[in-house]
Design a protein that fits this description.
single chain, mainly alpha, Short-chain dehydrogenase
């Protein structure tokens, strides 16, 4: 059965189960998100990207009797020759002929690429080393480290890199994030940071139940591992002035925050109630640490509007309006919200300008500003 047919079948079965269920349970909604994820990463542009990665990773294969290697190697020989001639420091693009040749090779093995897990091959870094030096040494780049660990790191790093590029962006980041499996890693800072980044990427692609699932797992992990140092997390968020204990508290609260954003965007009433609880926990920790940023102001004003405390919402909205993160039109939208609040029209603000989508935009803009650094 072809991959496209399989995905359609899985999605149909999931959707049918979802439709027939008397209750939209957490598990049913999570499975529906998993089906949507597979559908979202199974189109030509992503498959071609995966093809190029497999071509590089194959260069480091030592066991050339490997069936997947035998099946794929003939078609990619031309691609590897083309890629070796490309100067990564050159400002010139590859020739049209070379690009067409690469695409022709890709078309001939498209079905294989769709069906194959790229992680059965050596890591991408080993592939590049093999291509440019001819050395096929296992564990070449990450010495004495398990393959599962560093290919997870590769996927996570690539997901963040492509997310901030104009030409690739979210579809490719979503693919890389789907390949990241932090839950399989040993307990470490990298495990919890990768889980958070993956949760954000799922959130930014409207896969709220997948995001919530990972962030809930991360919150439980952080509860059990309070003493693990978080130096990379501290650097990632720019928390250099915080102690290790304070960094743990701040990162813990960020997981509550984005789980709250997930739940806020869901449809069930119970999810909205859960989101408000998560937001309360976030603000409590941020207040304890004395941290102020766009996320704090956005959540503070949102909660006060939801709880009909309009006067308390205005100071946070004023701070938000002055943030350099937002465009002129977005500042105008915030000012319109302030005007609504002053006219005692909090409900109009929440249903109109300052709605759930705008709150999600605040979260995404803040995280993109972090990732771009």
């Amino acid at each position: 059965m072809k991959t496209t047919t399989k995905f359609a079948f899985v999605f149909s079965i999931t959707f049918f189960s979802f439709s027939c269920s008397s209750e939209k349970t957490d598990q049913v909604l999570l499975e529906l998100d998993k089906a949507k994820l597979e559908e979202n990463i199974n189109y030509d542009k992503i498959v071609f990207y995966k093809f190029a990665k497999i071509a590089v990773r194959m260069a480091a294969v030592q066991d050339t009797t490997m069936p997947e290697y035998q099946k794929f190697s003939k078609q990619v020989e031309g691609v590897n020759r083309t890629m070796k001639t490309i100067n990564p420091n050159s400002k010139e693009s590859i020739s049209v002929i070379d690009a067409l040749m690469m695409y022709k090779e890709y078309r001939s093995v498209k079905g294989f690429v769709k069906e194959t897990d790229e992680d059965i091959f050596p890591p991408l870094t080993d592939g590049f080393i093999a291509m440019y030096t001819g050395q096929k040494t296992s564990n070449n780049f990450f010495q004495n480290t398990e393959k599962a660990y560093y290919q997870n790191v590769e996927h996570a790093v690539l997901s963040m890199l492509v997310l901030t590029t104009r030409d690739l962006g979210q579809p490719f980041a979503l693919y890389e994030c789907s390949k990241t499996q932090p839950e399989l890693l040993k307990d470490s800072e990298m495990k919890t940071l990768l889980e958070f980044v993956r949760g954000f990427l799922f959130f930014s692609n409207n896969l709220f139940y997948l995001s919530e699932d990972g962030l809930s797992r991360n919150i439980k992990w952080l509860d059990k591992n309070e003493s693990i140092p978080l130096p990379y997390t501290k650097a990632f968020f720019g928390w250099s002035r915080l102690s290790d204990e304070q960094t743990h508290t701040a990162f813990h609260s960020m997981n509550y925050l984005f789980r709250g954003f997930d739940r806020m965007r869901m449809e069930r009433k119970v999810d909205e109630e859960r989101s408000l609880e998560d937001f309360d926990l976030f603000l409590k920790d941020m207040d304890k640490l004395g941290l102020q940023n766009e996320l704090v102001w956005g959540i503070d004003s949102y909660l006060n509007l939801k709880r009909e405390n309009p006067d308390k919402a205005i100071p946070a909205l004023e701070k938000l309006k002055k943030s350099p993160l937002f465009s002129e039109s977005e500042r105008e939208a915030i000012q319109q919200t302030i005007d609504y609040v002053k006219d005692r029209k909090s409900d109009a603000a929440l249903k109109g300008v300052y709605d759930k989508a705008f709150m999600g935009k605040i979260a995404t803009k803040y995280m993109f500003s972090i990732l771009s650094k």
